[in-house]
Amino acid sequence: MSRIYTVAVVGGGIGRSHIIEGYVTNKDRFRVIAICDLDAGRRNGLADEFGIERRVENFDDLLAMDDLDIIDVCTPPMVHYGMVMAGLRAGKHVICEKPLVGSLAQVDEVIAEEAKSRGLLMPVFQYRFGNGIQQAKKIIDSGIAGKPYVGTVETLWRRGPDYYAVPWRGKWRTELGGVLMTHAIHPHDIFTYLMGEPKSLFGRVATRVNDIEVEDCISASLEMQSGALASFTATLGSADEISRIRLMFENVTIESDHEAYNPGKALWKILPRNDATKAAIDRLLDGWVDVPSRFETQMRLFHDALEGKGPLPVTSRDSRRALEIVTAFYHSSETRQEVQFPVDETHPKYLSWLPEEFR
Prior knowledge:
It is built from 12 helices and 14 strands. With about 350 residues, it is of the alpha/beta class. It has 2 domains: about 140 residues, Rossmann fold (3-Layer(aba) Sandwich); about 160 residues, Dihydrodipicolinate Reductase, domain 2.
């Protein structure tokens, strides 16, 4: 029988979704034993709602809990680095919402600490999971799709003054970036998950929708290591809200579902170039087993990794790739120059992508 791992959820905003989608649905694998939040009302409200006994204000108290296996960090971005490092140093397993940390230097420090720790680290990229995206992944990985040609990613969402009324949002030092960091990072991760590593990027960012410090519109042209070309576009000023990923291969065109916050769940549009390709795809997907979307599957696969039954579904290296794209975007927009990947310690923004006045 598999072990049930104990969890402390830190931060009751998105943390509530982790509980509902990730832990309640996997109650034979996880048990939430503590809620940590600076807001007493939210802390106690969540604890009451889910019958959680321990209500913690001070994060450091979690590190001393001998019966606690996992710390799930769902706090604002500016405190992720310290909590992740402390959790790993305490030998805990750590789950962390995006962005994992605030610079490539920090993510490299986290990777080094993870290699020494007894605990495993899993960043959150929950949009990777669901029937639509996993079928697309299987088709691409099988080789049926063939040579990748081009791809597009559109993150067309809407955020206004009410969203930015939360004090830490829209500010460089606390949110660490805008639509590129907090919103489009998910569809961009989906793209590289399916299409592989980027080779170069020319990007621009702008603040056109809201009166905030950080950007709310972005656009970029990319070349992938495979030779495929891609474009990324995002805004927080759309009248409706969609996430749309379209991938053109030698033998098939694949388009995501357009649901903004769960694009992986519904079946994607698969357009084979000919009958032979369609038959090959039908054979490949015959007997498909349902893949629940978002946190439910990501947490289940994390449990498998803890039990030695499979790899981590998302790794710190995946987070590094996402943060390389962020770094390249900001540098390219500032210098009007193309950025080559990988982005390493010699890059001017390795220590921070924040503007000089906010570092």
